[in-house]
Amino acid sequence: MADAAPTRWAEDHALARRCVAGDGVAQRALYEREKRRVHAVLFRIFGSNAGIDDVIQEVFIQVFRSLVGFRGESSLATWIDRCTVRVAYAQLSKVRRRRAELELVQDIDSGDPTAERRALAREATRRLYAVLDDLDPKLRLAFVLQELEGNSVAEVAAKMEATVVATKTRVFRARAKLATAARGDPVLREFLEGDGEMVSEGEAS
């Protein structure tokens, strides 16, 4: 187990070097290894699968263009996360007022005993993203990466290439905005205060 991290570091470096050299097999291997995780992160940021394939494509274009700069200070996965966040930020900045076209659940048969609970979760998630759509992109990214992706503040700061202090402030401000919205919205308030989880297809490729 002690050798796992050095082994992965060496594998990352070897894979990165092959990609930089134009090895198509290596580039495909990296894409296949990371695409599901990149998709999951972007899905939680945008709250929708609408147009997400184009964003994923842009992420990997940026990855392969800038991979020559990978020095191994962090894992290759974390380095790709930073590219993902940069592309997502650029997209959010272009369409800040975009309303999320949520694709969170398939139609549920009326006889499904969990239909009401799932419908409420879907509606709560829709309301959550309606609030997130109005946030400054940096606040939204910080909130999603910590609260929905489960990263620590330090990890969020690294992925956003920001200080820990700035990251804490962004998360705090995002939470405050959501808390204000939730005070007048019982569905959103129950979702945020309880154990509510997004009802999503976010792990699909």
Walk me through this protein's architecture:
The chain is mostly helical. The radius of gyration is 19 Å and the shape is elongated. It is built from 9 helices and no strands. The chain folds into 2 domains: 95 residues, RNA polymerase sigma factor, region 2, helix turn helix motif (Rna Polymerase Sigma Factor, Chain: A), CATH 1.10.1740; 81 residues, Winged helix-like DNA-binding domain superfamily/Winged helix DNA-binding domain (Arc Repressor Mutant, subunit A). Helix content is 68%, strand content 0%.
Topology at a glance:
Layout: H1 4-20, H2 24-46, H3 52-66, H4 76-94, H5 115-132, H6 137-148, H7 153-160, H8 164-183, H9 186-193
Helix pairs in contact: 1-2, 2-3, 2-4, 3-4, 6-7, 6-8, 7-8, 8-9
Strand content: under 5%
Percent helix: 55-70%
CATH class placement of the largest domain? Mainly Alpha
The number of helical elements comes to 9
Q: Give average pLDDT, whole number.
A: 82
CATH homology superfamily name of the largest domain: RNA polymerase sigma factor, region 2, helix turn helix motif
What is the alpha-carbon Rg in Å? 19 Å
Q: Give the name of the CATH architecture of the largest domain.
A: Orthogonal Bundle
Terminal CA distance reads 30 Å
Q: What count of structural domains?
A: 2
Largest sheet: none
How many strand units? 0
Q: Secondary-structure element order, as H and E?
A: HHHHHHHHH
Question: Runs with pLDDT <50, length 5+?
Answer: 97-110, 199-205
CATH topology of the largest domain: Rna Polymerase Sigma Factor, Chain: A
Q: How would you describe the shape?
A: elongated
Structural class: mainly alpha
